[in-house]
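User: Can you model how adenosine-5'-triphosphate sits in this protein?
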Amino acid sequence: MIPLSIAEVSEIVGATADRVADQAAIVTGPVVIDSRQARPGSLFAALPGTQADGHDFAADAVAAGAVAVLATRPVGVPALIVPDVLAALAALARAVVGRLQGGLGGSSPRGQAPPGLTIAAITGSAGKTTTKDLAAQLVESLGPTVSPKNSYNNEQGHPLTVLRLTAETRYLVAEMSARGPGHIAELCRISPPRLGVVLCVGHAHAGVFGSIDDVARAKAELPEALPPDGVAVLNADDPRVAAMAGRTAARVVTFGRGPGADYRAAGVAVDEAGRPGFTLVTGAGSAPVQLRLHGEHNVANALAAAALASQLGLDVAGIAAGLSAASARSRWRMEVTRRPDGVTVVNDAYNANPEAVRAALSAVAAMAGGGRAFAVLGYMTELGDQAEELHEEAGRQAARAGLAGLIVVGDPATPILTGAKAEPSWRGELLQVPDAEAAVAAVGRLVRPGDVVLVKASRAANLQRVALALTGEQPL
Ligand SMILES: Nc1ncnc2c1ncn2[C@@H]1O[C@H](COP(=O)(O)OP(=O)(O)OP(=O)(O)O)[C@@H](O)[C@H]1O
Ligand SMILES: [Mg+2]
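Assistant: Here's the modeled complex, given as structure tokens:
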């Protein structure tokens, strides 16, 4: 972060100091919420967790070198006392952005890093982290770039990411998620973006919002927050996203598979490992791309990253080369492991929603080629009223994907089984198991060399344990 004195931090967050001996002591970062990550110069933010209360670890953080603790009550070590630690982190992050932007706009000749900081933000129901990781790998070639670790995309993770910015940083490529109205608007207040990408509006968290139209309204807060000299990057293939063109003051560019998009893919072909290749077509020329990521759904993510990087000034050749070299930085998203016995495990257990399940099923079907594909599916959380229907639909899709077998894990996922059974074309093995242990055993009985096994569910179902056991990375 940019160095700030304790006195400056106190003023920004409106804190009262407790046991602070030296107001001039400098916080140089990192700002951490885990005392084990505290280092000399750190600021430790004490957050109440579900398992533990950060306040109990304040002394550990200071012993590890933290200059002070942001806390809601005295903790026996130097602390800045505020009513709400998350709100204080947001205020601090906002102030850091303000200083770095320093009134310098973001515009500059194409291809050059502009003075000051340019912020790009990515939202959507699926693909945010993947797109963020791809875009960051492209933008890094333009100048020093900060992007979140994993999915640091909410009121907690986003300020922590922003607080990693330094005076040298030229680009922030942020991921923004919403679990309710106003969330993205708030993240945009912390770090006002000049570029905003909306990937898709799907059923993820629809249950929390109410309906898919409520999800769309929440995602639209990103284009709504963009300035007139900004750029809204919208998915032309998703009508709810395309319609956001009417809700932004910014210039609009589009990406998509259809012929009308500004950034599109021609001649998409998936190789035997399920990795898509295509020609990236833009108004400024075309170039071949061969992704290292698995699954055709990543074409859309790659196009979105391409549009973002292009709007920041990277040329088409640089984008195509960068996309072709880019790796998956965040784990358990279509992570492919080829076992010594010839079985391929696809760990996509990071999260699931109906659109993501469809994408993953079609990816493993493609990867199996003429061979056999299996899926281990668990339940998808936060789908609201439509949960049962959407799980049944996932089962029907699994059946239609031509799987050799479907293993449904846990009671809440039963409608997946019902859906698969109801599909007349279904010919494969169909079983339901109670837990991860039984799922691993069932896969062990069913698969043979050459088979592909997908493991996918919502985070809460914890099915990454199945995938890690199947790859041998971590025994159950
Ligand atoms: N464009 C897409 N269309 C459909 N599904 C996708 C797409 N991109 C990614 N997915 C699926 O969603 C899963 C999660 O991807 P990713 O982590 O990039 O999304 P996210 O939006 O960051 O998720 P979260 O809301 O959990 O942060 C992937 O493993 C993949 O199965
Ligand atoms: Mg994410």
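A couple of observations from the model: The longest strand covers residues 263-270. The first helix runs from residue 6 to 13.
User: Helpful, thanks.
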